[in-house]
Amino acid sequence: xxxxxxxxxxxxxxxxxxxxxxxxxxxxxxxxxxxxxxxxxxxxxxxxxxxxxxxxxxxxxxxxxxxxxxxxxxxxxxxxxxxxxxxxxxxxxxxxxxxxxxxxxxxxxxxxxxxxxxxxxxxxxxxxxxxxxxxxxxxxxxxxxxxxxxxxxxxxxxxxxxxxxxxxxxxxxxxxxxxxxxxxxxxxxxxxxxxxxxxxxxxxxxxxxxxxxxxxxxxxxxxxxxxxxxxxxxxxxxxxxxxxxxxxxxxxxxxxxxxxxxxxxxxxxxxxxxxxxxxxxxxxxxxxxxxxxxxxxxxxxxxxxxxxxxxxxxxxxxxxxxxxxxxxxxxxxxxxxxxxxxxxxxxxxxxxxx
Length: 354
Prior knowledge:
The protein has helices at residues 9-17, 36-48, 71-85, 101-113, 131-142, 163-169, 185-196, 214-219, 247-260, 268-285, 294-305, 324-334, 341-352, and strands at 20-23, 53-56, 92-97, 118-121, 147-152, 175-181, 205-208, 221-226, 229-240. It is α/β, with parallel strands linked by helices. The chain has an 8-stranded parallel β-barrel with strand order 1-2-3-4-5-6-7-9, surrounded by 7 helices. Strand 6, helix 7 and strand 7 form a beta-alpha-beta unit. It is globular.
């Protein structure tokens, strides 16, 4: 498979099989400086919880890290911790890549410098580029690093992209996977159908980023008639900000889904849990306020667990919305079996050690 030669075969195999990939948060001090000790603890947590990969420099890491010269340090720290772990299993390192072509290429080069496997390329903030220009930008980045596509929802800085765009996008040989995160079923179908209609359909892994629909995305088999032939495709894993918290339970959840998703009848308990997970996400991501407090919400949960010292964001104005902390309290009480607080408590001291 020539198109995957730039990816370690074990990493590529895990990507195709489907795994838990965590959108990595940012640890800050009260002075809003990088808290390296807790930044390392976060990566250690995700590795210990059994995650199959991390995405660093993405929305959950706060796009503003680029303004404060933190992009390279956070990529370096995460890569060092993965190396230090000495894992005997594959682990996927993904770097978030944003901005115009010149900036994106520089970020891709930094990612390669620290051994990252793929670049998760955001189309956000590029409204001056039409879809053809976005394709050209992707092709330029692909000369540096294999591509993990990203359909970012508009409320988080993304834009609506056409089926025609995705159909061109998936034919770029270096595209290895796509994170589908428009928080929209119609637009999700656009991406899956575009992959199914491509000759590269078996080379591209699909990951959910739809934090409002995680379990259903992972249970669903998509089926399309492509030129008289029935083609089926699954979303095999998730690359999610939601999985930056309660990660141990997310790993267990994906394994449970893998065991049952080919059954003729899906256990109704999983459908119920789908609503419970979405309810938690609504609180963490501040859905009632158009996701304004989404990063602060994730950080608040990590603060409660003791991994982060506070929920601070780089932007001092970015914090929980009114009523959000009460919503987080509510879902903690309602669904105690979804958290991994006991696991974190048992390992926190070692994660925070030098």
